Predict the structure.
Amino acid sequence: MPGNAKLSTAERQHRVSEIYGPYHAAIEDLLLRRARQGRRSALIAIHTFAPSLGGVARPWHCGVIFASDFRIGDAIVGKLHSEPGLLVGVNEPYSPSDRVYHTMSRHGEANGHPAAMIEIRNDLVADDEAQEAWAARLTPLLKEAAQEGLKAEDAESPKQKATG
């Protein structure tokens, strides 16, 4: 982010204490509360991306970003691919190596929770109606994908216990 490039040490520390720290603490708190209630968690982040970058068109309507844990990412990609005319990028327009996956790595994969990010091209969610349409598209899809990801976790658990 160009606006972050020349931050003073004081401004960087201020942003960490006012934004970064509370954000991650809230996620940790929610995951801990869910675990104490015996509820399992899957993490999904939703972001937007510009239709072009550096003069290069980014044709995808949306992208799904995931790292080494495929449980939920594969399920989301499969469900989105089933929609006619929807161009879905896999680890596009970003990938975990682009340093966009920190939250998913930290709170998801590091703790054994299925995790993925969805990137929606921002011209496709530019107004309330478009945002509501994407919310209606993603809500059932993400619920199903999370359930599939957690079922995959159940199927892997005996193997993990045997080798771990």
About this structure: Residues 61 and 86 are 6 Å apart (CA to CA). The chain has four helices and six strands. The first strand starts at residue 43 and ends at 49.
